[in-house]
Design goal:
The chain is an alpha+beta fold. Helix content is about 20%, strand content about 25%. It is built from 5 helices and 12 strands. The strands form 3 sheets. The protein has a 6-stranded mixed β-sheet. Strand 6 (about 110-120) and strand 7 (about 125-135) form a beta hairpin. Helix 1 packs across helix 2 (about 45-55). The longest helix has 19 residues, at about 140-155. It is globular. The two termini are about 20 Å apart.
Length: about 250
């Protein structure tokens, strides 16, 4: 599941504070039997709530500090510890100096990618997961970030199975997505079952907004088979659990 859970902020409209939403976000994870959650806008307290309620372990560092604790978004990977172990993990920033906390080009804020190599206890197979959140302002930053993702993923994974998830802040017909699709496949495009749910994944905390802006994705390389793809549209009293809808992909290694 790729899910921008909307950062905790006391200034949210009624119904959109994290305290009001967290049980519904967690319920979506549990009900859909998610094994790996790639979250965006997950602040430390939110990640702790998710881990406590699901029993998931967390891998990743905060984008502002590069540490496993601290302020700001984590873009962490949360995983079912009963099924998976982490072989190795790392991170890099979406910038011209990716080894240190930094931003480049026309980016408004720091952006990071966290990644992990997983071992599946059930099958003995191994695969990589990369999770990121591209800049919401800078079009050049999004394109350069996509190019950096291509370079780094190919170098780190070395041809092994890869999942890339995230809020890319751009729609499918744009240049950054074209770059990502030059070496990965969009799970929606190759799902064996007919895709379910609305086209769009961004609702802007507005129940009446047309759901036609798709900016959240789950990509895989060609070593995975995508069994199903679904965008979860759930609201209570016209209030969504987040300003994004979660994207769920059921995948298996070929």
């Amino acid at each position: 599941m790729s899910y921008n859970v909307l950062q905790d902020d006391s200034g949210r409209p009624r119904g959109y504070s994290w305290a009001e939403r967290k049980d519904r976000v967690i319920s979506q994870i549990k009900i859909n039997k998610v094994d790996i959650l790639c979250a965006q806008e997950d602040y430390q307290n939110q990640g702790e709530d998710i881990s406590r309620a699901t029993g998931f372990y967390k891998v990743g560092v905060a984008r502002n500090t590069g540490k496993a604790s601290g302020s700001g978004e984590f873009v962490a990977i949360y995983y079912n510890k009963a099924r998976f172990t982490v072989r190795k993990w790392g991170h890099f920033w979406m910038s011209e100096t990716p080894e240190v906390p930094s931003k480049s080009w026309d980016a408004a804020v720091l952006r990071i990618c966290n990644w992990a190599q997983f071992h599946d206890k059930n099958t003995g197979q191994e695969f990589f997961v990369f999770n990121t959140h591209l800049d919401h302002v800078g079009s050049e930053a999004r394109l350069k970030s996509a190019e950096l993702l291509k370079e780094r993923i190919q170098k780190i994974a070395e041809g092994k199975p890869v999942i890339l998830a995230g809020d890319m802040n751009t729609t499918p017909a744009t240049a950054p997505i074209t770059v990502l699709k030059s070496f990965m496949v969009d799970s929606k495009d190759v799902s064996m079952a007919a895709p379910e749910g609305p086209e769009g994944t961004y609702n802007a905390m507005d129940y009446n907004r047309p759901l036609n802006r798709r900016i959240d994705y789950v990509f895989t390389n060609n070593l995975f088979r995508v069994l199903a793809y679904k965008v979860l549209k759930e609201a209570k009293d016209t209030i969504y659990p987040s300003d994004h809808l979660p994207v769920l992909a059921r995948v298996e290694l070929k």
